[in-house]
Automatic annotation (TrEMBL):
InterPro entries membership: Nucleoid_associated_NdpA (IPR007358)
Keywords for this protein: Cytoplasm
Organism: Halomonas icarae
GO function term, MF aspect, one: single-stranded RNA binding
PANTHER family listed in its UniProt record: NUCLEOID-ASSOCIATED PROTEIN YEJK, PTHR38772
TM annotation in the entry: none
Annotated Gene Ontology cellular component terms: bacterial nucleoid
Family: Belongs to the YejK family.
Protein's UniProt name: Nucleoid-associated protein YejK
Cellular localization per UniProt: Cytoplasm, Nucleoid
Chief location category: cytoplasm
Amino acid sequence: MPILNAIVHRIEKGGDAPARLLPASEPLSESEALEAMLEGLTRAYHAKNKAWGHFAERGQDDESDAASPLAMELTAYLEEQRDFVAVTRDLAGRLATLLDAHLSVSGDLMVLDTRFGDARFLTLALLHHREGFAIDDDLQPTPARQLNMTQMSLAARLDISQWQRGDSRQYLSWTRERGGKALAEGFAALLGAVEGVDAPGETRTLLKAFSDYVEQEDLPEESSREKTETLVEYASEQASRGEPITLEELSGLLDEQQPKAFYDHIRNADYGLSPEIPPDRKTLNQFKRFTGRAGGVSISFDSHLLGSSIEYDEASDRLIIKQVPKQLKEQLKGQG
C-alpha cells in the first residue's frame, strides 16, 4: 500500500494542565517500519466498533457544500492549495481541545494518505503508549515503550475516491467506543461526520432476510448450514478488510447455480437494504443456527429467533414454535 504522505503530531496531556501540542515540522520519511506500522494500524482499526457515514453538508444557500472544516481543509490539500503538514497540524490542534474536555492521557496523532490499487484513503488515529519489555543485543531484558494499538479509541478512515466520486454516503468511518458517549459525539463533530447508515441494524436486517430466504426455499439442513457458513465467512472477511458487504456478490456466493436468487429475494421483499452494507462484526459473531436431529425429527433455526417466534422451556424440555413455516403448515392441515 503506497504511502503518499504520513505524519505524527504529539499531544501531551497530564493532570489538570491544558493539553500541549507538539507538532511535527515535516512528513515522515518512507521506511519498512512505517509500512509495517500501517498494516498493524489498519488491522487494529478494522477490529474496532465503528460508525459509517459522510461529511455534514451545508444548505444550498451557503458558499460551500461542506460544513466540516476537515472536509474543506482536505479539499484544499487534494487540490494542492494547502500543505499536508499544516492541514494535519490544525486537525491535531482541534483534537487537543477535545482531549482537554474528555481525556487525561497523552497521545500521538498519526495521519496517513495512502493509495491501494485505484482507491485512495486518509487514515487518522490517536495512538497511546504502554510500558513493556524487550531483549537487547546482550540478551538482557530492558524496558521498552510501545504503541498500544488495541487502545486506539479515536480513529477514522476516509475513502477519498468514493468521497470525490459522490456516489456513496458511506465513505467515512470512525471509531465508536463504548462508555464514552460525549467523547464519541465530540469526535464525530470534530470530523464533521454524519452517521449515514446503522451498521448493526443493517447487518441484522441482512441476517433476517437470509433467514426468511432459507425458510422460503425450504432448504435441507445441510444446505442451510453451508449457506449460513458462507454468509458469515464472507461478511467476516469483508469486515476484516474494512470493506462493505455487496449484496450481488454475496448472492452469487450463496448459490452458484442461481446467483441472483438471494439478491432477488431481498429486492422483492423490500427489506430496504442498500446495495452495499458495512458489516458489524459483533452482530455477525452472534449469528448462528441451532440444529438437531433425533427420532425422525429434524429441527434447524437461526439463533435470533430464540425468544421471539421460538421458545425453549428448559424445565419441561419443550421447544415451542409460535410461527409455523407456511409450507409446513400446508402439509399439516387435515392431519390432526
